[in-house]
Amino acid sequence: MHSSNRGHWTNIGIRALRDVSVFIGAYLLANYVRFTELWRIEDYVAPILAGAVALSASMYVLGLYSVESQRRSSFLIHSILLTFAFLISFMIITLVGYMSFDLRIGRGFMALGCLFSYPVLLVGHWLMYHKHRISPERVAFVAESPEELEEYRLMRSMCPPGVHLVGRIGIDDDNDTQNDFLGRLRNARRLIRVHKLDRIVFTEQRVEDEKARNEFRRLRYLGFSCNSLISVCERHLNYVPLHLVTMNWLLQSESVSRSFYFSKLKRFFDITTSLILLVVLAPFLLMGMAIVRFFSPEGSVFFRQERVGRFGKRFQIYKLRSMRIDAEKGGAVWSSVSADPRVFPGGAFLRRYRIDEIPQLLNVLRGEMSFVGPRPERPEFVAKLSRVLPHYQERHMLQPGLTGWAQVCYPYGASINDAKCKLEYDLYYLKHAGLLFDSLILLDTVRVVLGGGLKTHTQQRYTTGIDFDLDGADAEPQADGVDLPPRPASEIRGLAEV
User: Fold this and answer.
1) With CB atoms 3.0 to 4.6 Å apart as the test, which of 32, 76, 315, 494 could cross-link to 368 if both were Cys?
2) Mean per-residue pLDDT for 384-410?
């Protein structure tokens, strides 16, 4: 019952298509108003399409389509960024006009196009920004067992944005004394009508109940949405809460339609993108090498480090050196989220704008990494984290990436709990990976790099609040699909992406 869930790229595509349609429609209307007919429209197609593509791409890079994960503190900030994206599309149209006089859009035509499109775009984004308050999805939670009731209370206190939890539905329970109790599942059709429900949600374990499963199937065939809680979280949060992940969900996360992408297209995508970026980023790589040589002349410019790749295969990752040569004289240490004293002057600049990671394009070309995927970790840390975090080894089922969904959604971490949060994004990517999603992650990466990294994550997360620690770190690592031999315990002083 996961099929109704829409991936992140689907929502983005719908929003971008709407803006592109408004933009093109406004310019067609402007042409008709200006010339009282669709005059020379074949000459204006190229600049209008270029402006529409620039508008949608700029809006995505600025995070205007990702109101769930990149929500601004106020619509004023959102509207300012929208105006900036609109100005970019204006400049692209002008630039295309300068390339050929026949493609140039006149000032009157341009003014009318802007006048017709900008207000409609602004109103559309206002509705999108406030949709979770104007028209939230009304859901009811099927809960009766102690575990389900605990999850129900968690959802009431941490309901995802855009979801309004109306109340609880029981199976055999008929507790009319509770205000939030709506009724029994066998009366679901009446409850849907009375309470105007949009969806019924349940835990994965409830599907094993034959009585409930038959009722869910009946409702689905009648055209009503019944989904597991984890699929609702996917849709509204763009990550999967770790405590909801089951082996059944992991097995169903793979689909036949992606097999060709992982076996053929993704490799072609990696090679093509890496070759292009090696050429484009060559000046920045040379600048980074000069910074390393100037601020830390005693060591080498590049350094190699062992990381864990797909299916646990280890490889050497390449980076520009950003730390002192004695940075780990006391053993392996995770990076600090704040100013790391091991980083030499200038190294912080390389790390902030990801210049130190440009040499990893060579790892991508060699097939050791993909351009998009979970970030590879060091074997010492993988062995420890896999003992603490359930399903941690699942992230090794895919090729590790230079960038990834976790990297563009969550900032550098400073705790095991932050590693858990990033794992939740990695598991979401594991299910939804594809060419379009990877392309969107590349655009997200542009925003993150130009912004100097993500800021501290302040949004409330749907989580049980379990305090993950390393109390069991001395236990033998569990063989969860990846063969990692035990390593001597080393001191861990925080966690961040390395």
Assistant:
1) 315
2) 91
